[in-house]
Specification:
With about 180 residues, the protein is an all-alpha fold. Helix content is about 60%, strand content about 0%. It contains six helices and no strands.
């Protein structure tokens, strides 16, 4: 970014494909995961209905936890900071309750959570299908970091937001 803002904030690839499009794909995959509770396919057949339901519920719980943190967070996104053409002052996302003069609600990275919410698949599959579990984990992490990068390029998040979103998601998924 620069004092004029983030040049790629509205670029079609970062904004339309990796932001809007990826969000739609993530919700479609969540719907597939929901339907797989009753009509399993592929490696999901190795899990019981209860385990498939647990995977889906845990994925939704991750989204709820990340969304909950965002609701109470008061720090603004990079594109809102004065250094990048906005009005807000930089305040660490760990300074709970401290307002920065901007919109707030930037931490953690909600967009990356659209992929990190699939982490429960690794935990549910690792006992019955360890190879598939590792592939699931790799695909989830690649997707999450790609979505995080897209938002960083656009000025919506810092790398730390994506990494903390991953850690929070991992903690919820491992319960």
């Amino acid at each position: 970014g620069s004092p004029a803002g983030f040049a790629l904030r509205d670029h079609w690839f970062w904004s339309t494909v990796l932001h809007e499009g990826a969000r739609r794909v993530a919700w479609a995959l969540q719907l597939v995961l929901l339907l797989a509770i009753w009509w399993p396919f592929g490696v999901l057949r190795r899990l019981s209905r209860r385990e498939r339901a647990g995977m889906f519920v845990t994925a939704m719980l991750i989204l709820l936890v990340i969304s909950g943190f965002k609701t109470i967070d008061t720090t603004s996104c990079p594109w809102d900071l004065a250094e990048f053409g906005g009005q807000a002052s930089y305040v660490s996302h760990w300074s709970w309750g401290v307002r920065d003069g901007g919109a707030g609600h930037c931490f953690p990275a909600g967009h990356a959570s659209a992929a990190f919410c699939f982490l429960p698949g690794y935990f549910w599959l690792r006992r019955t299908a360890p190879r598939h579990a590792r592939l699931w984990l790799a695909a989830t992490l690649i997707a999450a970091m790609t979505l995080g990068l897209a938002q960083q390029v656009r000025g919506a998040h810092y790398l730390s937001h994506t990494l903390w979103t991953g850690w929070i998601s991992w903690a919820v998924a491992s319960l």
